[in-house]
Amino acid sequence: MPIRIPENLPAQSVLLGENIFTMEDQRAASQEIRPLQVGILNLMPNKIETEVQLLRLLSNTPLQINVDLIRIDNQAPKHTPQSHMDAFYHEFSEIKDKRYDGLIVTGAPLALLDYEDVNYWDTMKTILEWANRNVQSTLYLCWAAHAAMYHFHGIQRQLRKNKLSGVYKHRVNDTHNELLRGFDSEFFAPHSRYGYISPADYNSIPDLNVIAESDEAGAYVVASDDKRMVFITGHPEYDPETLNDEYHRDLNAGMEPAIPANYYPDNDPSLPPVVRWRAHGSLLFTNWINYYVYQTTPYDLNQLVEKDQRKR
After folding, report:
1. Is 185 annotated as a binding residue?
2. CB count, 10 Å around CB of 251?
3. Which residue(s) pair with 212 in the sheet?
4. Active-site pick, 151, 191, 235, 280
5. Is 27 annotated as belonging to a binding site?
6. Pseudo-torsion of CA 210, 51, 15, 7, nearest 10°?
7. What angle do CA 302, 54, 12 make, to 5 degrees?
8. What exactly does this protein do (predicted)?
């Protein structure tokens, strides 16, 4: 089944070129099923690139999914045309009375800022509380995962001296958790962050469990027992060249970034990177949609029950 996205969204042509079936509003309206409603709160500066990455992962499911793209504020993004934002994105005020089966909150390049110094932190807190009442299952990526842990549980991230960048080996801690169904006992995933929360801090919260982690990168997949909150500290959505682009961006900015670990053959940035995370990244999103969203969400979204978030 396809994902339903706004007509003429640039991601559509990219996905169709990859033989990924998408559906426009007019055709979707004739389907006599109850499609899943999924929102994407996109905090990344390059909105279009992130849209393609996430929509690609959401497409690997037999379910029809209606996608709403959501923006955090009215500020013009640095790397996305304003016309694109006006055409395809919803203000939070436009969707705040709507309920969703699933919500994805992306990472953001804000690692070195205190949360209260982020110019949209008040709005972010409002959206986090709104998701608590109006979304069946929320998936937080990278910075958003740490921000949600701070807001709901008072756990402050630590900052590494050097950025964690690369593709790291992880192990599955809970082989029975449906979110990791089909995973190998060891798998790889990309990370690109300064922030760090220890596995012990995650596990100290009642009903939260670190279900996949890495000796080098720490906790990777953290999930609540009720399946309504998922924290992903890395970037399973990354394209093969994303870490390479970030590395050369920082080089061109006069910084001295470390070469992304376990990424280039022989650690040589002149060689094409080795891609070994995309299958598990796709499976992670498919499992989330199936087991954490579709299998748990009420048919009538008005029957959603507010999540019980116990702050420390």
Report:
1. no
2. 12
3. 172, 221
4. 235
5. no
6. 130
7. 100
8. Transfers a succinyl group from succinyl-CoA to L-homoserine, forming succinyl-L-homoserine.
Q: In this structure, what are the phi and psi dihedrals at residue 187, rounded to the nearest 5 degrees?
A: -150, 170
Cβ-proximal residues to 213 (8 Å cutoff; 6+ apart), any chain = 170, 171, 173, 199, 219, 220, 221
186 is catalytic: no
Q: How many C-alpha atoms does 199 have within 13 Å on its Cβ side?
A: 14
Please tell me the distance from the alpha carbon of residue 202 to that of residue 219, in angstroms, as a whole number: 8
Give yes or no: 237 in active site.
Answer: yes
Secondary structure (3-state) at 250: helix
Provide the β-strand partners of residue 165: 192
Phi, psi of 140 (to 5 degrees): -105, 130
Residue 163 marked ligand-binding: yes
In order, the DSSP letters of 48-89 are HHHHHHHHHHHTSSSS-EEEEEE-S-SSPPTTS-HHHHHHHE
Closest by Cα among 99, 50, 102 to 71? 50
How many helices (H) and strands (E) in the chain?
A: 10, 12
The residue annotated as part of the active site, out of 142, 146, 153, 213, is 142
User: What letter does residue 179 receive in the DSSP assignment?
Assistant: G
Coil, strand, or helix at residue 159? Answer: strand
pLDDT along the chain (312 residues), means of 10: 70 74 54 82 95 93 92 86 94 96 95 92 97 97 97 96 96 96 97 96 96 98 97 97 96 93 97 96 96 92 74 44
Catalytic residue among 49, 51, 213, 237: 237
